[in-house]
Amino acid sequence: MPSESAKKRQAQKKERERQRQKQTSAKKKQKAEEQVNGASGGVDGNECSEGACAAAPGAVTPSEDDAKVKSKPVDKKSAARSCTGVLASHPLSRDIHINRLSITFHGVELLSDTGLELNIGRRYGLVGLNGSGKSTLLDALGNREVPIPPNMDIFHLTEEVAASDMTPLQCVMEVDEERLRLETEAETLMKLSGDMESERLQDIYERLDELDAATAETKAARLLHGLGFSPEMQQRPCKDFSGGWRMRVSLARALYVKPTLLLLDEPTNHLDLDACVWLEEELKKYKRILVMVSHSQDFMNGVCTNVIHLHKNTLVYYRGNYDAYVKTRSELEEHQMKRYNWEKDQMQHMKVYRYTFT
Ligand SMILES: Nc1ncnc2c1ncn2[C@@H]1O[C@H](COP(=O)(O)OP(=O)(O)OP(=O)(O)O)[C@@H](O)[C@H]1O
Ligand SMILES: [Mg+2]
């Protein structure tokens, strides 16, 4: 039985949700009117200025509006990729299950008729030989070339923030787009399911609370500090920083946004030891879905709850961190080897038997 105070909190939350729904609709209406009157100066011109777009590199947004705002030219890599698969999980689920996934890159099949299973709350380490297709898989997921539900938000860390006049703090705090997207997603979910209690909707409202402007700066500053930015550095324009440091800003933004699916390819590449240690602690607490490629076994041991092995064009799943994966795999291989030897002995035995008695 929920306590009185829990009931009260729940009621307050619902009220806040209702207010938010109202505000979102009002904002949208106002925006539409402005566009009709030509007063906004053009959505694209306003929202996709170089700084604003660059502030969220890799961020993939689901709504149609955002898709227009952030539409990127099809890059060469994605033109060379061909992906097929069937969504097996419910479109409103927070897990992603895709069956019969195949990915071809430059005519070479990297994944063939395999299953992708990503569950909420898990942090996956993606391992495989060099050139097996790990980065290609992350690119395909980040670009939504596989059937991921449109309301599932993804952040694929691919590039550093632009060398603009914005400060790292501003880049990280540039969350209005994120807030608008979450509000749109909540509205879509309400229309689709009408269930205010749904887990996903609750998650979105919690995140909207987290994006509260009152605490936004403190949170952004904490993330930047963890990644090596002193308070003075946080106020300098991004154009004064090298690509590596701007990559850290991008990483801070990814952590700030906390997407449902976070894709990181070698996130420690631009970090010193202190920042690596801090990032490990931060990612350990990641409650949504993380898929990460890292050459550091220690880092993977600290962060990952599961390992996906890209092996012979298929995805093989293991529970536990990297060490657990190595142990399970060696046990499996030993078992297979024993079985192989046993079968070989049997064949030999049969041959001798046939030779003797026939
Ligand atoms: N421009 C290209 N033309 C043709 N083949 C390419 C090109 N770029 C990459 N490949 C091939 O695509 C395959 C997958 O590459 P990908 O970068 O996804 O592998 P990876 O597992 O991430 O490797 P690594 O561990 O080295 O990062 C590789 O076999 C690579 O040779
Ligand atoms: Mg790679």
Task: Describe the fold and architecture.
α8 runs antiparallel to α9, α10 crosses α11 and α12 packs parallel to α13. A hairpin with a 2-residue loop joins β3 and β4. This protein has two domains: 269 residues, Rossmann fold, CATH 3.40.50.300; 38 residues. It has 358 residues and is of the alpha/beta class. 51% of the residues lie in helices and 17% in strands. It binds adenosine-5'-triphosphate and magnesium ion. The site of adenosine-5'-triphosphate has 11 residues, from α6.
What is the number of helices? 14
Number of strands: 10
CATH C-level name of the largest domain: Alpha Beta
> What strand line-up does the widest sheet have?
1-6-7-8-5-9-10
Q: Give me the secondary-structure category.
A: alpha/beta
User: Kindly state the mean pLDDT as a whole number?
Assistant: 80
What overall form do the CA principal axes indicate? Answer: globular
Major β-sheet profile: 7 strands, mixed
- The share of residues in extended strands comes to 15-25%
> If you compute it from the alpha carbons, what radius of gyration comes out, rounded to the nearest whole angstrom?
24 Å
CATH topology category name of the largest domain: Rossmann fold
> What is the CATH architecture term of the largest domain?
3-Layer(aba) Sandwich
Ligands and ions found: adenosine-5'-triphosphate, magnesium ion
Percent helix: 40-55%
Would you spell out the secondary-structure blueprint of this structure?
Blueprint: H1 4-37, H2 43-47, H3 50-54, E1 59-60, H4 64-70, H5 76-79, E2 81-87, E3 96-105, E4 108-118, E5 123-128, H6 134-142, E6 154-157, H7 168-173, H8 176-193, H9 199-210, H10 213-226, H11 243-257, E7 261-265, H12 273-284, E8 289-293, H13 297-303, E9 306-311, E10 314-319, H14 322-357
Parallel strand pairs: 5-8, 5-9, 6-7, 7-8
Antiparallel strand pairs: 1-6, 2-3, 3-4, 9-10
Helix pairs in contact: 8-9, 10-11, 12-13
The structure holds adenosine-5'-triphosphate (ATP) and magnesium ion.
